[in-house]
Design brief:
Layout (H helix, E strand, L loop, with lengths): L10 H8 L4 H8 L2 H29 L8 H14 L7 H4 L4 H16 L3 H8 L7 H11 L9 H7 L8 H16 L7 H16 L15 H10 L4 H14 L5
Helix pairs in contact: 1-9, 1-11, 2-11, 3-4, 3-8, 3-11, 6-7, 7-8, 10-11, 10-12
Length: 254
């Protein structure tokens, strides 16, 4: 059996799904997200996910002065570690932030998000020590799922051509691709929901479940999603710079 080009199990299924234009299939896979979360992290991860969903809803209901606390940040990081790969070395950086700075930067980030400024929002949310694009995307995907996908490893490897890295430029590129995919499936689809479906497809394959991406379905039009994805891979010098920067920061932020 040839060696997989991916470092995370099941990404092949996510790649197949990204090339399929069948909203019913996408929905069937995304509906298994909860079950795959339970399989991955049991009651603890499922409970953290419920808490984060409620946190996001509460933030959306607030009219002003929206921010996260130190406890909020730590819970979302715990959720991220349970869902993906834990990086315990980050805790010392995260815990070195003052509660005031976390509130200040997150407040500015939410203000940018409310203006649909994706890049500005990510920039503000990554100002605390230990908070990289992946952690920022976790927070913001719960707050505004219509704007932000979570930067799962499986989603990066599915949509990014090149070594997996956690830079802001790579995040913005995959977020845009998820936005394009979501636009194909109707108003209920968001970048966040697309990311969940891709992650779920990967987890189903990784756990040897019923891989629905192997069925004969209509592929996406190369003139729409696939072409857009290829075009957004331009700027290879930026990608190389991102990867080099990511390697230097790998132990400090994600």
């Amino acid at each position: 059996m040839p060696k997989s080009p991916y470092t995370r199990k099941g990404v092949e299924a996510a790649v197949r799904l990204a090339a399929i234009e069948d909203p019913i299939l996408w929905q069937r896979i995304e509906e298994q997200y909860g079950a795959m979360m339970m399989e991955k992290g049991g009651e603890l991860l499922s409970g953290l996910n419920d808490w984060a969903e409620n946190f996001g809803a509460e933030m959306r209901e607030k009219k002003k002065d929206k921010f996260i606390t130190t406890d909020d940040l730590e819970k979302i990081v715990e959720w991220k570690f349970k869902k993906g790969k834990a990086r315990p070395g980050l805790w010392k950086y995260l815990k070195s932030n003052s509660s005031t700075s976390i509130q200040e930067y997150s407040r500015a980030s939410f203000e940018r998000a409310d203006k649909n400024d994706v890049e500005g929002s990510i920039t503000e949310m990554t100002k605390p020590k230990g908070v990289g694009a992946a952690t920022a995307s976790a927070i913001l995907s719960f707050y505004k799922p219509e704007l932000f996908v979570f930067m799962d490893d499986e989603v990066i490897e599915c949509l990014h051509k090149g070594p997996r890295a956690y830079t802001q430029n790579i995040y913005l590129a995959i977020n845009e691709k998820c936005k394009v995919l979501a636009s194909k499936f109707g108003e209920t689809w968001t970048p966040c929901k697309v990311g969940r479906a891709l992650w779920t497809a990967a987890r189903i394959m990784a756990t040897e479940g019923d891989d629905l991406t192997l069925v004969d379905t209509k592929p996406c039009s190369t003139s729409s999603i696939s072409q857009h994805i290829d075009n957004s891979q331009g700027g290879t010098s930026h990608d190389r710079s991102d990867i080099e920067t990511s390697q230097r920061k790998k132990q400090r932020t994600r």
